[in-house]
Design goal:
There is one protein chain. The chain contains 16 helices and 21 strands. By secondary structure, it is of the alpha+beta class. The strands form 4 sheets. An 8-stranded mixed sheet has the order 5-14-6-7-10-11-12-13, with helices on both faces. Strand 8 (204-206) and strand 9 (210-211) form a beta hairpin. InterPro entries: Knr4/Smi1-like_dom (IPR018958), Knr4/Smi1-like_sf (IPR037883).
């Protein structure tokens, strides 16, 4: 069906509704020429032809009567449905009904009919005219956004980025078009805090706080890893795979919000998928929960009134306050520009050395280039050894002289060894071991290590961004013979590692070492891209 051109059917419908009158605004709408039959009505509904309306109603009434014997809700629906007329449906099997019951306060109002939950609820619109006005507002280029159901924050109102986003460049980098309404929303509002709970991310950047491209890559990587934990038939594809989920926001609770790009070639019809972080048992939430709503439709229903039934049925965030504000941590964000293509950092021969054939510090230098000026702190090794009462392994000292303090692979942080004052190495070690002793006193079976400086005790020198710790078991008088061990935060204590420090770092960054506490590579990661070392200076906490 391309157009609702057969307006003669309107008279047939009027004549076929005994004892009821059609609302004047419905009749006027149905008499219009050239009304598109696509899903332009809010919530992805497409209008029914007048000739279809009665047939669809008869079907709904018949189904309700068939189920009435087993369901009080269906029995009630079988009584009131003849007084309503379907005017639109969607791909989920839901309908919009107009109330034809003369004398009722809701005559002419538009209700949602959910075939799985036959409860009438409250009207979505008070009239067909209101529905059409709402649809026109959503389709109007000047208002392709959320202004109709939100209020800007007085303290931190939304504001556009200082310069326009180069959408052509962004979409070329993505390899996909983006919904027009999203681009217009981003141009008008900039990075957005919605309902004091959701962040809607737009292509912007603020140094050391947010980079749109980095956020997409890491968000999609985490989603792919999470999806692989599901049965094969339940795993969603994730961008850049064709039809994959494409992220657009996240919540304060750790939920990630995506578009499902597989549902339509028209980005304006992409629906929302939410990766809920902590679904409550019995909530009905799936790991990647699909909603039959576009981005703006989803936002609209997070701020639904307390008595308003969510659509589609089932779990949905909210109700949230209808507020919009500038994202607090991006007050001075600039438009994000896709990075220019660069040549590979390593030649094929160098990659083989870095990932396969190379050994020791030479291979590690290729895989994770060291800084020009390593930062160690202002003290000396001799002073540190004196304060500890022991020297440290020669391999550790050699590594630190080359790299200094910093983090490896955006995960493993090496303490600054020669810093003096309150933030010195020994102070950090004592803080960590104080926490370990507390845990050990409460749960000795889960914390079997002996803390340093007891003989053979655990002496940490690095930690992860998730508070796992890497250190030595100080067994014996020769520090060069001390084995390495990881104290994992979220797993039982494992055995000592088999290799020395440099070989351990090399194997881990190659993706060849898998152990609790050291984040592993995803099967789609390029080890050369994920490896790396970021050097610190004296401003670093660790």
């Amino acid at each position: 069906m391309d157009d609702m051109d057969d307006v003669d059917d309107v008279d047939a419908v009027i004549a076929s509704v005994p004892g009821a009158a059609l609302p004047a605004d419905l009749v006027a709408w149905w008499r219009l020429d050239g009304v598109a039959a696509t899903a332009w009505i809010p919530l992805d509904f497409a209008p029914l032809e007048p000739a279809e309306a009665l047939d669809v109603r008869d079907t709904l009434v018949r189904i309700a009567r068939e189920k009435a014997a087993h369901s009080d809700d269906h029995a009630a629906a079988a009584e009131y449905l003849p007084g309503f007329l379907p005017i639109a449906d969607n791909a989920g099997g839901h309908h919009l009904l107009v109330d034809l019951r003369s004398g009722e306060p809701t005559f002419g109002a538009v209700f949602l009919w959910d075939h799985e939950r036959p409860e009438l609820g409250v009207p979505l619109w008070d009239s067909v005219s209101e529905l059409l006005a709402n649809a026109a507002e959503a389709l109007d280029d000047a208002h392709p956004d959320i202004a109709s159901f939100t209020t800007p924050s007085a303290e931190s109102p939304p504001a556009p980025l200082p310069h326009p986003v180069d959408w052509t460049a962004v979409e070329t980098w993505l390899g996909s078009r983006l919904p027009d309404y999203y681009k217009q929303l981003a141009d008008r509002y900039g990075p957005l805090d919605f309902g004091e709970y959701l962040w809607i991310h737009v292509p912007c950047v603020r140094k050391d706080r947010f980079d749109y491209g980095d956020w997409l890559r890491e968000t999609h990587r985490a989603a792919r890893i999470a999806a692989r934990q599901l049965p094969e038939g339940e795993r969603p594809a994730v961008h850049p795979h064709p039809g994959g989920l494409l992220a657009w926001g996240h919540s304060r609770g750790g939920d990630v919000l995506f578009w499902d790009t597989s549902g339509s070639e028209d980005p304006g019809r992409w629906t929302v998928v939410v990766q809920h972080s902590h679904p409550a048992p019995g909530s009905g939430l799936l790991p990647f929960h699909r909603y039959d709503l576009t981005l703006t439709g989803y936002l609209r229903h997070t701020v639904r009134a307390a008595g308003e039934q969510p659509f589609p049925p089932g779990p949905l965030l909210g109700p949230l306050p209808g507020s919009i504000a500038r994202t607090a941590y991006l007050p001075t964000a600039e438009p994000w520009t896709p990075p220019a293509p660069t040549a590979p950092r390593l030649t094929e021969a160098e990659r083989r050395i870095a990932l396969e054939t190379g050994t020791g510090l030479d291979a590690l230098r290729l895989l994770s280039p060291p800084p020009e000026r390593p930062y160690l702190g202002g003290g000396t090794w001799e002073a540190l050894f004196a304060e500890l009462g022991t020297r440290l392994p020669t391999e550790y000292v050699e590594l630190m002289e080359v790299y200094g303090a910093g983090d490896w692979g955006e995960w493993l942080r090496f303490l600054t060894p020669l810093r003096t004052g309150e933030r010195r190495f020994v102070t950090r070690v004592e803080q960590v071991l104080g926490a370990y002793r507390m845990h050990k006193d409460r749960h000795p079976h889960h914390y079997p290590l002996v803390p340093w400086p007891e003989p053979g005790g655990f002496l940490p020198f690095a930690n992860s961004y998730d508070n796992d710790y890497l250190g030595w078991l100080t067994a014996g008088p020769d520090p060069d013979a001390w084995p390495l061990i990881v104290w994992p935060r979220h797993a039982e204590q494992g055995p000592a590692l088999a290799d020395g420090l440099i070989d351990t770092l090399l194997a881990w960054q190659r993706g060849a070492l898998v152990t609790e506490g050291l984040a592993g590579l995803d099967e789609e990661d390029d080890p050369v891209e994920k490896a790396g070392f970021d050097a610190w200076d004296d401003s670093a906490y660790w």
